[in-house]
Amino acid sequence: MAKTIVIANQKGGVGKTTTAINLAVFLSKDQKRTLLIDIDPQGNSCSGLGVNFKERTGNGIYEVLIGKKQIKDVILDTKYPDLKLVPVTLDLAGAQVEMMGFPRKEYVLKDALESIKKDYDFILIDTPPSLGLFTLNGLVAADSVLIPMQSEFYSMEGMAQLLKAIKIVKSGLNKNLAVEGVLITMYDSRTNLSKQVVEEVKNYFKENVYHTVIPRNVRLSEAPSHGVAIYEYDYKSQGAEAYFHFGKEFLKKAGSS
Amino acid sequence: MAKTIVIANQKGGVGKTTTAINLAVFLSKDQKRTLLIDIDPQGNSCSGLGVNFKERTGNGIYEVLIGKKQIKDVILDTKYPDLKLVPVTLDLAGAQVEMMGFPRKEYVLKDALESIKKDYDFILIDTPPSLGLFTLNGLVAADSVLIPMQSEFYSMEGMAQLLKAIKIVKSGLNKNLAVEGVLITMYDSRTNLSKQVVEEVKNYFKENVYHTVIPRNVRLSEAPSHGVAIYEYDYKSQGAEAYFHFGKEFLKKAGSS
Ligand SMILES: Nc1ncnc2c1ncn2[C@@H]1O[C@H](COP(=O)(O)OP(=O)(O)OP(=O)(O)O)[C@@H](O)[C@H]1O
Ligand SMILES: Nc1ncnc2c1ncn2[C@@H]1O[C@H](COP(=O)(O)OP(=O)(O)OP(=O)(O)O)[C@@H](O)[C@H]1O
Ligand SMILES: [Mg+2]
Ligand SMILES: [Mg+2]
Questions:
Q1: What b-and-e string marks burial along B42-62, b requiring 16 or more CB atoms within 10 Å of the CB?
Q2: Hey, are the CB atoms on A13 and B150 less than 8 Å from each other?
Q3: pLDDT in single tens digits along all 257 residues of chain B
Q4: Cα B147 to ligand 4 centre (Å)
Q5: From the candidates B62, B89, B151, B153, which should be mutated to test the interface with A, based on the most A CB atoms within 10 A?
Q6: Shortest Cα distance from A256 to chain B (angstroms)?
């Protein structure tokens, strides 16, 4: 049975998509059958894996959420044998209003995943930078939440809101929701700010913070324009090394819980 | 009569708030009566100016949007004499669902601003990283849109969606909406990626792109933790110099249109 993990943080640009893609590819290279679901209308998980807009018309998470298609009919292959992708189509942006009237609007993704969970070891869900209906669907469908956290001042500000949202979901819609872990991203060892934020994050989240810290590394921001994960783009880079260590630490922690 | 400018880009972490704060302070220092409205539930424009969560209960943009308060009753002073702030309260996150049933749900902010436009030279609106109802209210209330654009691959991806949303608003809800300009942010002259994106942005937006480019500069990310704009935090930094030049270029362009 798949372990379902939602990658969420309503602060924008903290590395949700970068973590989703590089973790998903790491897991698939470790022979874990992995499914990546992109539920962000921006579709960055798709474009970062080389699946462009044109290939995504009419067959994506939007059609599944409004009940037009089964999830198994929209799953795409990727360059990586053990990694499959559920793309987002541009129409998703309008779905939030459409879904407001659904009786089980928070459970739509969870219900859709029931039929395929047995086919995968891990299901990752990339979410948009908001606490709206799509992220809510991710939190309800997931076993746990992976929180990428940029080492910057504004990131700490948003933590209270995110934890409040997780608590609300845990008290009602998804009683089993746990925090998988907090991953510090874009760390710049030359700045005091990064060191201060890391200290605060460790005080706040204690053992939930991964030991691996992802440094700021331009190769990570170049890889998506080539449609590959960091390991293919530049396996010697600091970014590749960090996401590789994170993958191992993630498996050790996730595998045991 | 105030010129109203909405700062928008649904891609997360591109420098919307950093631009909103540093432009608002620049304008106020140039004796322009300026109002900054924070309509992002994260409230980063507030915290970046030293207005913390506790000071914002019960008196913010949320109360205005649901009709409980007049906008003039929630305007706060800031450290800067000619800069006033409309804060966001935490309840805003829930307002989107509440407002779905309003007859003029896209015009609520525009209507609220009518009564105070004569008191200001500029009104700036900081928006969340999405194309939801709050950003839509900003696009309908504004005369023009200022688009901060990070020099990264995913930023270009989102441009088509943003321009489509602007076009839709222009065709119906706000016929006068114009593009004020595109500001390139977090530029790193050492990387090819930055150069490539800038090239593409200039091809795409032509004379709408500001000549001033904001470099990546850690002092910009440190300033908000002190609750001041970059000019006070470190006026000799590259970040202060860049936002100062941007302010002048902005006034030249905005003043003349
Ligand atoms: N460790 C890193 N070093 C340098 N650049 C990075 C790093 N991680 C991500 N980036 C770049 O920073 C930008 C933001 O990252 P990303 O898009 O993954 O964040 P996100 O949280 O998914 O954003 P959004 O909130 O818009 O969904 C991207 O251009 C990405 O390529
Ligand atoms: N030119 C810059 N150089 C370095 N850091 C910057 C720069 N501009 C902004 N930052 C930092 O990058 C992060 C993202 O910027 P900011 O929060 O202003 O973006 P945003 O578009 O408002 O994000 P959101 O989409 O979450 O609202 C912040 O931590 C900010 O301090
Ligand atoms: Mg993303
Ligand atoms: Mg912001």
A1: bbbbbbbbebebeebeebbbb
A2: yes
A3: 899 999 999 999 999 999 999 999 999 999 999 999 999 999 999 999 999 766 666 789 999 999 999 999 999 999 999 999 999 987 787 788 788 889 999 999 999 999 999 999 999 999 999 998 999 999 999 999 999 999 999 988 888 889 999 999 999 999 999 999 999 999 999 999 999 999 999 999 999 999 999 999 999 999 999 999 999 999 999 999 999 999 999 999 997 54
A4: 12
A5: B153
A6: 33
